[in-house]
Description:
With 123 residues, this protein is of the alpha+beta class. The protein is 18% helix and 36% strand.
Amino acid sequence: MQLGYGDAVGFNIDFRGEDQHSDERVSVMCEEPGGLVLLVDDRAVPGGSPEDVMRARGWHQRIMGWWQRDFEEDGADGAARAAKMVVEELLRRGARSPDALKVTDVRAERGGLLALPGLAIAR
Length: 123
């Protein structure tokens, strides 16, 4: 993927939580500058997940009910680390099958192209 300065691309992975009633979301974004950023919606957890638990999972900071992790400092290994973190978080939050996942809000600002061939998506 190639981005111009100030450009951004991203998508959400939506699924039913472990209780099968709550909607859960993990957001993946990449922008220049800034690089790859993950966000996980923690608002479905009463009182939010404990800070020590989320930090142990690799999340850096809580922002209004969401946990964020950026991979700007991870260089070339950042994408692989982010992908692993997304899968681990989805499993921890109750996603049990790829069939239960839905990709939403695929976006490429400034008319760019975001191709996600592993997800069979191009926008």
